[in-house]
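Lab notebook: predicted structure, single chain.

Context: the supervisor wants predicted structures on file for every construct in the current expression panel, including those that have not yet been purified. This is the next one on the list. No modifications to the sequence; it matches the entry in the shared construct table.
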Amino acid sequence: MSHLALVLVLVSACLHAGWNLLGKKQVPSLAFFTLAMLGGAVVFAPLLLISGEWLNLNASFWQLLIISGAFQGVYMAGLAWAYARGEISVLYPLARALPVLLVPFAGWLLWQQWALSSQDLLGMCLIALAGFLLPLVRLSSFSWSIYATPALGFMLIAALGTVGYSITDKAAIDLMQLQGISATISGMQYMVLQAWMAILWMMPVVALIPSERKALSVLLAGSARVWILAGIMVLSTYGLVLIAMAYTEDVSYLVALRQASIPLGALLGVFWLKETLSSFRWFALALMMAGLVLVALN
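Prediction complete. Output recorded below exactly as produced.
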């Protein structure tokens, strides 16, 4: 991974924590994230005019885009419905930690490639372990029933969505570069294309679920500035990651380093949303930071 990719991912992590907090603080619903995605897609739509080469991409690229949009929709739905049922300081770390272990193994199963060192694996295991420890107030309070909640179930769905779009998007970005589109342009334009595709998947779900239709009405009756701002942050966040993908051999590195948003998200949950963290949860966050440092230093 290049230094540029590292910087891009760390900036993206800060933005990611910010828009998740906005989603939790407003109306935590798929309707909010759908409007946010729509706002961001409209704002950044002119990026598609920079170059028209994306129009000439082959059928394989468009198939990947459709699949990616579906996974992005699954991620957003899982995230929204989890936030409606639990605290961000606990749920957000789990959503980010699970893909750290799942993406490398999914990539290996698909392509039989393994570019990770023992230091990478140790760091990723520490990150994932910390994510699983965060729901506990203390180690002695461990019980499987703590994890068997609707909120954590939806968070697992969000994590699986992350695994799906991470692997799919890496393949799509590679195809764009093979077409001769630069890394920066590929990332920016794919960011917009994926947003529109995700919207096409999410809007019918919002329309079919009564609670989501009600949330949509409430959001549309209020100020649009919040969800437009969230949308700009959502697309900017992932746009930076997409650009970084072009400079990274294994997408697992990106997934691991994006977890720098976890400590920030937990801290924002404590200081802005007035959630509480026990000393054991602070320990878990410190463990996660140790894992992040191991991956970054490699």
